[in-house]
Amino acid sequence: MKKYFLTLLAITFASQISAQGRGTKIGFIDMEYILQNVPDYTEAKSQLEQKAQKWKQDIETKKVEIAKLKDALKTEKPLLTRELIEEREEEIAFQESELIDFQQKKFGPNGDLITQKAVLVKPIQDQVFTAVQDIAEAKKFDFVFDKSSDLTMLFAAKRHDISDQVIRTITRAEKREQRTKKQLKEQEAKEYEEDLEDENPALAARRKALEDKKAARDKLVEDRKAAAEAKKKELQDKRDAAASEREAKKSGTVSANDNKEETIEIEKKADGTATAKEDKAAERAKTLEDRKAALEEKKKKIIADREAAKKAREDKKNQPKEEPKKEE
Predict the structure, then answer these.
(1) Is residue 174 part of a domain?
(2) Which domain holds residue 48?
(3) How far apart are CA 166 and CA 127, in angstroms?
(4) 210 domain-assigned
(5) Fewer CB under 10 Å: which end of the chain, C or N?
(6) Residues near 65 by Cβ (< 8 Å), separated by ≥ 6?
(7) Number of C-beta neighbours around residue 283 at 10 A
């Protein structure tokens, strides 16, 4: 309610200023959006969430241990004396009390989770407040509100949202600490262009159009480069094939004619086209095979005739000679 009256008072004050002849410039930020986009906060928040997850696991483990103690007592109760039963019950009560204290310490209203979140947010909030003041002074804002606070904002035009400018301001400050003088000058020039784009949306549209053209040119260059690489690979494949063919001829594994005919045959089969030249080559190959077979037969016949003649001479030589007849 107090914030509502403060807002109402601010708007009334702004109206009075406007009535005096000067327009009122009002902006707003979204603190939750800013925190989600600040790298330092997101990293620390992730670490805190890991801690919270570990605390939850410890609580569940403790609950399981207490449940086991209760089950054991229930099972063994008929066998225990009153003193032992009371001692066990006191132990269980003590364990439960410790569990409740641990839960309150970690997740209570003043627990470690809430406290560490506050410690985590505080430096970022200070940076945001400093950035808001710098932006408000530079761009002549009269009022800057936090959209994510308890303030009820029924409508807010997007053009008055300076959250992204605040994020850039914080990021710039972090980057400056890690840059050289030359890099700082380049960064300042880039920041100046970004600020101009915030003030002039047409300039941002022009910049985007230029970036799109540059991307299109880069893509065209990449396509041409890829086509050149493909052509180069095709030529290299042809050279490799020719080298393999020369090596085969050199080693004597295939003759030039056979290699040529085989290459033609493979290409024609791949294309699915049979020509008269292939038939002629096949007929020629068959004729050569027939001639070779006839020569082999002739050679065998000559060898057989020679062997027969040789055997006949030997037989004649081995026959006994006839003795001459005596005259009476």
Answers:
(1) no
(2) 2-11+23-162
(3) 9
(4) no
(5) C
(6) 95
(7) 10
List Cβ neighbours of 70 (8 Å cut-off, separation of 6 or more): 92
Residue 132 lies in a domain: yes
119-128, 207-216, 270-279, 314-323: segment of lowest average pLDDT: 270-279
Q: How many CB atoms lie within 10 A of CB 122?
A: 10
Q: Which two tokens stand for residue 39?
A: 């790298």
What's the Cα-to-Cα distance from 22 to each of 16, 28, 63, 220, rounded to whole Å?
9, 20, 66, 53
Among positive and negative, which fits the CA dihedral 167, 168, 171, 172? negative
pTM of the shown model: 0.41
Token pair listed for 68: 């086991």
CA angle 168, 174, 177 (to 5 degrees): 135
Which stretches of the chain are DSSP H helices? Answer: 2-19, 31-36, 39-76, 82-107, 112-138, 163-176, 181-199, 201-251, 256-271, 276-318
> 36 in a domain, yes or no?
yes
Question: 24 with 17: CB under 8 angstroms?
Answer: yes
What is the tally of structural domains in the chain?
1
- Which string of DSSP letters, residue by residue, matches 211-254? HHHHHHHHHHHHHHHHHHHHHHHHHHHHHHHHHHHHHHHHHTSS
